[in-house]
Amino acid sequence: MTNTMKNSEDVATIGFSIVAYAGDARSDLVEALRCAKNGNFDEARRLVKEAEKSINLAHNAQTKMLTKEANGENVTLSFIMAHGQDTLMTTMLLKDQMDTILDLYERVFVLENR
């Protein structure tokens, strides 16, 4: 197996890891929104914490890729890696907004149930 082929397989494996972990996090965050909409704020916050764990795993996989390149390895970009990066970044953005969104849902829930 050539070094280029091995590198491409490593990049694909890392890309798939990022997609999987970020996808799991996104699913948890979307479910957290559904829970908050239904007034289940404890479960929503638990799901956000689970999403944070998955985001950290995705970020660790991303760091492996960055380390390879920083160490001088010729890293071949692939569609899987691009998809992984896109999924991770949009999921991180959603996560960054979740505290505000959950707080707003909770305020609305309290006001509607006075």
Automatic annotation (TrEMBL):
Gene3D superfamilies: Phosphotransferase system, lactose/cellobiose-type IIA subunit
Active site per UniProt: H83
Phosphohistidine found at: H83
Top-level taxon in the UniProt lineage: Bacteria
Subcellular location: Cytoplasm
CDD domains in the record: PTS_IIA_lac
Classification via InterPro entries: PTS_IIA_lac/cel, PTS_IIA_lac/cel_sf
Major place of residence: cytoplasm
Assigned GO CC terms: cytoplasm
Name the record gives this protein: PTS system lactose-specific EIIA component
Protein species of origin: Lactobacillus mulieris
